[in-house]
């Protein structure tokens, strides 16, 4: 009886202590939620009003660009454009880790920054990036906004800011063989409906995919995840930094008076093929020399 009573007492103390610690943990989480709640639901991912410009000048950010040998090349004609309206920079491809996208637009250093609106530039990212607390704060500090249409329209029309996006999204991360880009992505409709008040520009990233070896590109689980969640897992087989990362920014794609939406999209695709062939040809010439 003594042993039974002693064991019972120990069990009460042990489990009671666990419940006590769990209560303290819940109380702390509740306090954090109350203190942080007003910023969690302040719609900053749409407003883009919590960018921390000083973060981009930190040494770690500069080192981030240099470690991959990242460089940005701009079409010379882009610097001569005088008519300034907000612009949608459509970047492709997403890349395994979107390193080029981050280095080009989030870490705004270099001559290409002169292309951006004086009101600032915001980077559109997957809305799920704003769910976890720490990741949300980091994304907002770096100048990210949700890639949803409501957020893009607010940045372009009301705040007169440029916006960088990756239209292909996470489908472009080690894309499956049956991946087909959208013929009429939503951002083109935004630009077309603006009737000259918003421009678009092609942006190409080269070298990132060559630095990574991935597996499972055609696995059904990856396709299922991206259809259900809008995001997917990328399985790495290795990373090698043998190829420098290069970003090309082309001239602006402008609206023409009386042009239909179908013609606007068709001209975008035609320019896309011409710009892409030009940049690839230039890369090949540099390799040969």
Notes on the structure:
The protein is 44% helix and 16% strand. The protein is an alpha/beta fold. It has two domains: 41 residues; 242 residues, no CATH class. α5 links the parallel β3 and β4. The N and C termini lie far apart (90 Å). The mean pLDDT is 80.
Question: Nutshell version of this structure?
Answer:
With 289 residues, this protein is of the alpha/beta class.
Secondary-structure element order, N to C: HHHEEHEHEHEHEEHEEH
Overall 3D geometry?
globular
How many DSSP-defined strands?
Answer: 9
Number of domains: 2
Low-confidence regions: none
Q: Which structural class do the helices and strands define? A: alpha/beta
Largest sheet, strands/sense/barrel = 7 strands, mixed
Termini gap: 90 Å
Major sheet: arrangement of strands: 1-9-6-2-5-3-4
| Rg result | 24 Å
Name the beta content range.
15-25%
SS summary, helix count? 9
Q: Please, what is the average pLDDT?
A: 80
Percent in helix:
40-55%
Question: Key terms for this structure?
Answer:
289 residues, alpha/beta, 2 domains, seven-stranded mixed β-sheet, two-stranded antiparallel sheet, 16% strand
Topology overview:
Blueprint: H1 2-40, H2 44-47, H3 59-67, E1 71-74, E2 87-92, H4 99-106, E3 121-125, H5 133-141, E4 144-146, H6 149-158, E5 162-165, H7 186-194, E6 199-206, E7 212-215, H8 220-229, E8 235-239, E9 246-253, H9 261-288
Parallel strand pairs: 1-9, 2-5, 2-6, 3-4, 3-5
Antiparallel strand pairs: 6-9, 7-8
